[in-house]
Amino acid sequence: MEHLRVLFSVSLLFAFFVSVSFCENNGEDILIRQVVNGSEPKVLSSEDHFSLFKRRFGKVYGSLEEHRHRFAVFRSNLQRAMRHQKMDPSARHGVTQFSDLTPSEFRRMHLGVRGGFKLPKDANQAPILPTKDLPEDFDWRDRGAVTPVKNQGSCGSCWSFSTTGALEGAHFLSTGQLVSLSEQQLVDCDHECDPEQEGSCDSGCNGGLMNSAFEYTLKTGGLMREEDYPYTGTDGGTCKLDKSKIVASVSNFSVVSINEDQIAANLVRNGPLAVALNAAYMQTYMGGVSCPYICSKRLNHGVLLVGYGSAGFSQARFKEKPYWIIKNSWGETWGENGFYKLCKGRNVCGIDSMVSTVAAAA
């Protein structure tokens, strides 16, 4: 019996190395399978990939010089996606709508968390909640508290979408009504600053902070509907706030402890949470549970935590991995219909570091 156990262990180990070797030797093939459908040839050149990318995302460039530049960036991002695939094997990485952007362009146009992370004067530390009877899986999308995925466009206003998403959920819990709230109001009107940190102000497309936006919303009385103050994805315009059309107000907001059980408890009890994370792997993310071996905890992107799951399969690590369900603001063509799955349990990419819960006035 002992020799059978040894034989089985050796066989399993051999299968593991064969699998890893296959992934390493066929990284480009893995990428190809992610970006083409069954009707396309399986072996494609970089030029073919670029043609498919332009067609899928409607990319048009103004000159031959710009086209050449974007193709060079695209080729670099193909290699980057392959590196991400090796560093993050439980997710799928490949070509996205951002594959013709340099990392600095991507950060400038599609991220946007900025400023300090101190507790604002009107924020409280969220009380410690019981965690014994938390559900194994939970998703506010199934309970009507999450609006459809939105798109911030080429504007570093992620912080405003994280803010409205949390207040939309809180308003739903308070009133039973799901109302899409105005990010453009925050982009145009919110210039809240942290007086203790120079340059830490909400600045439209140049970034902001969710806690500062909650502070603004508390002071100004609330937010208008999206349809009454629609999103344009630009800043520098005049504030068009009409206080008679405010539909959702903040009664208080709190910062949640850096503890994933407490984050889960606050999510279940209080609704979707405004969170910040490091988006290093998100430019190439296509689906699956992202659980990179290495990821900075320097926060640069605001998103909305809407749920969690208990079993995201991780082939490379031979076990089921629990994960967070995150609503992003890059449209439904990105990720899993606009959502991101990030593994739970060890503050991956800083996901536990800045979490806020908001309560809406009834």
From TrEMBL:
GO terms for molecular function: cysteine-type endopeptidase activity. Transmembrane segments: none annotated. Residues 50-106 form the Cathepsin propeptide inhibitor domain. GO terms for cellular component: extracellular space; lysosome. The keyword Signal applies. Residues 1-23 form the signal peptide. It comes from the Eukaryota. GO terms for biological process: proteolysis involved in protein catabolic process. Residues 134-359 form the Peptidase C1A papain C-terminal domain. Keywords: Disulfide bond, Glycoprotein, Hydrolase, Protease, Signal, Thiol protease, Zymogen. It holds the Pfam family Peptidase_C1. Belongs to the peptidase C1 family. This is Cysteine protease. The lineage of its organism: Eukaryota, Viridiplantae, Streptophyta, Embryophyta, Tracheophyta.
